[in-house]
Design a protein that fits this description.
Family: Belongs to the phosphatidyl serine synthase family.
Number of strands: 0
Membrane topology: Multi-pass membrane protein
Helix content: 55-70%
Oligomer: single chain
Function: Catalyzes a base-exchange reaction in which the polar head group of phosphatidylethanolamine (PE) is replaced by L-serine.
Structural class: mainly alpha
Strand content: under 5%
Mean pLDDT: 87
Organism: Portunus trituberculatus (Swimming crab)
Largest sheet: none
Shape: elongated
Number of helices: 6
Enzyme class: transferase
Length: about 160
C-alpha cells in the first residue's frame, strides 16, 4: 500500500511537475542493464567522482579586481589554516582530539563548494552575488577568527622572533 499509493503518487506528481516546469527528466539505467563487467566496474567507480570535470582558469592578471579577488581567496585559505592551529592552542584542545578531525572533515567540502561559487561569481557575468555556501564558509572562518582573537589576544600579538 505504501509503495503503490504514497511512493507511486509522489513519483507521478514529481514527473508531472518536471513536465510542467520543462525540466530535464533523467532516465535511470540500472547497474544490471550494463552488459559488460568492465562497464559495471567503470559505473561503480564513476559513482564517487563528479559528473563532469571542469577546467578552471582563474586568470588572476586579467584585471585589478580579479587580482585582489584571488589575493582575498588566498588570504581566506591562510586564515582557515591558521585557525586550525590557533583554535587548538587557545581552546586547549589536544592535537589528537576527535573534534579537530571532524572540523577538518567538514571544512574541506564546504570550502570546495564555496570556492566553486566564488569562481562562478568571478567568471560568469550573469551572476551578480555570492552563493550561500560562500557566505556560510566566510562566516564560519570569521567566527573562528573572532574566537581566536577574543581568547588568545596575547598569543596573536606576540611579535615575530628576530
Amino acid at each position: 500500500m505504501d509503495a503503490l499509493v504514497c511512493n507511486g503518487l509522489g513519483i507521478y506528481c514529481g514527473l508531472q511537475s518536471l513536465k510542467y516546469f520543462s525540466m530535464k527528466i533523467y532516465h535511470w539505467r540500472g547497474l544490471w542493464n550494463i552488459p559488460s563487467y568492465r562497464g559495471k566496474l567503470r559505473r561503480i567507480i564513476a559513482q564517487f567522482g563528479p559528473y563532469v570535470w571542469v577546467d578552471y582558469d582563474w586568470k588572476p592578471l586579467s584585471s585589478l579586481g580579479r587580482w585582489f579577488s584571488v589575493l582575498a581567496i588566498i588570504a581566506m585559505f591562510l586564515i582557515t589554516e591558521l585557525n586550525t592551529f590557533y583554535l587548538k592552542f587557545v581552546l586547549w584542545v589536544e592535537p589528537g582530539h576527535w573534534v579537530n578531525l571532524v572540523r577538518l572533515i567538514f571544512i574541506l567540502p564546504w570550502g570546495a563548494v564555496a570556492l566553486r561559487e566564488v569562481f562562478q561569481f568571478l567568471d560568469d557575468p550573469d551572476i551578480t552575488k555570492f552563493g550561500r555556501q560562500s557566505w556560510l564558509f566566510l562566516s564560519i572562518v570569521c567566527t573562528e577568527l573572532l574566537i581566536v582573537i577574543k581568547f588568545g589576544w596575547d598569543t596573536v600579538t606576540i611579535p615575530f622572533p628576530r
